Amino acid sequence: METEKITINLGPVDLGRIDLLVQEGFYQNRTDFIRTAIRNQITGHAGEVSRAIDRHMLDLGLRDVTRRELEAALAAGERLHIKVVGLMRIAADVTPDLAAATIASITVLGTLHASRDVKAAIADRIA
């Protein structure tokens, strides 16, 4: 699975504590500690996350939007409202015109991968 790089600022005391835990062998490195801490927080809020996903009708994980899906929506006269927690990918063969004609709105809590031209064509619909 692809990952995204984030930057955080920590005070010297917190950073020193992390380094001490790494030095003592509890974690392989700072990144291992931070990933573990984030996963523990997400797990601790699993119920709230699950209820929010259901309430907002979000897709969880990977959502691939294909040319075939958009062409079917166009043929049916439908416009899509896509909501994703995770990664959304718009296929490389989707044209900007097809995306603009079929995608009414996109909400991605995570990462959106699409061509620069497609992103530009639907920029006003991306929340």
Structural overview:
The two termini are 24 Å apart. The chain has six helices and three strands. The protein has a three-stranded parallel sheet with strand order 1-2-3, with helices on one face. It has helices spanning 12-23, 30-44, 46-56, 67-76, 96-102, 116-121; strands spanning 59-65, 80-90, 103-113. Helices cover 48% and strands 23% of the residues. The chain has two domains: 12-44; 54-125, no CATH class. The longest helix has 15 residues, at 30-44. With 127 residues, the chain is an alpha/beta fold.
Feature tags:
127 residues, 6 helices, 2 domains, elongated, 3-stranded parallel beta sheet, alpha/beta, 48% helix
Query: Distance N terminus to C terminus?
Result: 24 Å
Helix/sheet category:
alpha/beta
**Element pattern in H and E:** HHHEHEHEH
Structural domain tally: 2
| Overall helicity | 40-55%
**Which strand order spans the largest sheet, edge to edge or round the barrel?**
1-2-3
Shape descriptor reads elongated
State Rg. Answer: 19 Å
Largest sheet: 3 strands, parallel
- Secondary structure tally: strands: 3
